[in-house]
Amino acid sequence: DAGVTQSPTHLIKTRGQHVTLRCSPISGHKSVSWYQQVLGQGPQFIFQYYEKEERGRGNFPDRFSARQFPNYSSELNVNALLLGDSALYLCASSSGSQKGYEQYFGPGTRLTVT
Amino acid sequence: GIQVEQSPPDLILQEGANSTLRCNFSDSVNNLQWFHQNPWGQLINLFYIPSGTKQNGRLSATTVATERYSLLYISSSQTTDSGVYFCAVNRDDKIIFGKGTRLHILP
After folding, report:
1. Which residues in A have their CB inside 8 Å of a CB on B?
2. pLDDT tens digit string along B42-96?
3. Residue A108: left (phi > 0), alpha (psi -120 to 50), or beta?
4. Confidence band of A100 (pLDDT split at 50, 70, 90)
5. Per-residue DSSP letters for A73-94?
6. Which of A35, A56, A110 lies closest to B93 in CB terms?
7. Shortest Cα–Cα distance, A88 to chain B (Å)
8. What does DSSP say about strands B10-14 and B101-106: parallel, antiparallel, or unpaired?
9. Does position A1 have pLDDT exceeding 80, yes or no?
10. Do A41 and B99 touch (CB under 8 A)?
11. Is B31 in the A-facing interface, judged by CB distances under 8 Å?
C-alpha cells in the first residue's frame, strides 16, 4: 500500500509569492495534518482536517490556509511568502481525528524562499 | 500550552552501546508517539504509546502517563540508528513535538 505522498519534493519561491503544497493520505485515512519544520527544530503543527472540516489550528498567521477535498487529499496554501517560511513542510494522515489515532508522515516538501 | 522536553539534546555512542532517551510533558495528553527522522527528513513511526510498555526488536518504549514522561530504549546500537528522535504528544486537537534528541552512532 502507498504511504502518504506529497508534492512537489522541492520548491524555490521568491518573497511575496504564493505557494501551494499537496498531500495525499494513506488509502482509507480521513484525517490530514500539516506541519512546518525549520532547521534544527521539531515540527510545528499548522492545521488538521478531518472529513473535510478544520479540526485544529496552530499558531500560524492567516497567510497560511488549507483545505481538504472529497477524496481526502489536501492542499496547504501560503500567501505573501517571507524568508522565514523556508522550511520542510510535512503532511501526516491518520484514520480518525487526532485524539487517539496514530499519525503517519509523508516525505515532506522542502520550500526555499529567496 | 503544553510543553514537551526531550533529553539529552545530543548523544554520541559507540556501535553496540545501549541508550535511553527521555520525553517529559507538562500536562495530561491523549496520546504519545516516538519518531525517528532520517537524514532525508522522513519521519518514521517507532511507537504509538499513550501508556504502558511496547517492544519492537532492539527498541522499546515506556510511557508513564500519570508521571508525564516517556522513555525510548535502544539496545545494541547500530550506525543506522543515527538521526534525530522525536516524541510528539496530542492535546486538544493539536500535536506538539519536542525538540528532539540527535543520536550519533560511531562505527
Report:
1. 33, 35, 37, 41-45, 48, 55-56, 58, 88, 90, 92, 97-105, 107-108, 110
2. 999 999 999 999 999 999 999 999 999 999 999 999 999 999 999 999 887 788 9
3. left
4. low
5. -EEEEE-S--GGG-EEEEEEEE
6. A56
7. 8
8. parallel
9. no
10. yes
11. yes
Nearest to B95 among A33, A88, A104 (CB): A33
Contact assessment for residue A94 and residue A29, using Cβ atoms and an 8 Å cutoff: yes
Nearest CA in chain A to B97: A42
Please say whether the beta carbons of B10 and B99 come within 8 A: no
**pLDDT 10s digits, A20-69:** 999 999 999 999 999 999 998 999 999 999 999 998 899 999 999 999 99
Cβ distance B32 to B49 under 8 Å?
yes
- E strand segments, chain B: 4-7, 10-14, 19-25, 31-37, 43-48, 52-56, 59-64, 69-74, 83-91, 94-97, 101-106
Q: A99 falls in which pLDDT band (50, 70, 90)?
A: low
Burial label, A54 (beta-carbon count in 10 A; 0-12, 13-18, 19+): middle
B45 burial (CB, 10 Å; 0-12 / 13-18 / 19+) is middle
Sorting pLDDT into bands at 50, 70 and 90, what band is A77?
Answer: very high
Show the DSSP H helices in B5-82 as ranges: none
DSSP letter (8 states) at residue B39 = T
Cell numbers of A26, please?
494513506
Residues of B whose CB is below 8 A from A37:
41
